[in-house]
Amino acid sequence: MNLNHENINTCIDLIIDKGTIALTSEYLIGKNLNEIINEKGRLSTADLTLLMTQILSAFCHANEKGLIHGNLNPTDIFIQENGSVKILGFENRNLFGNIQTTQLQSERIFITPEELMSGIDLIDYKSDIYCVGLILFYALTGLKPNFYCGFNLDNKGSFNPFPEYDFTESEKKFKSIINKACELKKTDRFESFETFKNEILNLSTHNSTLTKAGRTWWQKLFN
Length: 223
Hints:
Layout: E1 11-17, E2 20-25, E3 30-32, H1 33-40, H2 45-64, E4 77-80, E5 85-87, H3 90-96, H4 113-118, H5 125-141, H6 172-181, H7 193-206, H8 219-222
Antiparallel strand pairs: 1-2, 3-4, 4-5
């Protein structure tokens, strides 16, 4: 896959035997983001900043290599017991092409408007930016987005992917970032993952509550 980054799960080998395809990858110990939120609830703003910088670092690297994920879900974000985040699932698209790997489109929640409206072939890195924005909202609020069983794929109008949520003062800066990442039009989203990441990093510079997590931020997620 030509991906070599500390925050991307490493694919070790591809095995093809009598029509069966199997991947072997590095062994990880920890929990995915969906499990953590189900067990512990939403993340604090400080923990979320540390999580998101690792996620966006992974996507910066993938984008530099010209690769996209195309099907990002909270289960693809794996937090190891040492605090290192690993993104799973890049191999699905980049080894096997534009395939649906787990769910029918109408059953998925973390899905882009362009895929709903126009199909999977129009997915690009701006689609990954959108999905990261959805996951940022989920991790911040504990609420999954509204998408959209039975959505009219021909509907070109505006729609809101987010359920109602009363943002606290410390969360409002995240809200503006989420809204930017999840603009309906691709051209209105962040220009790049680097820009997205810098917006997250700026929060830790301007908000003292985001600097107190320290190096052991993940420990509370496993205790």
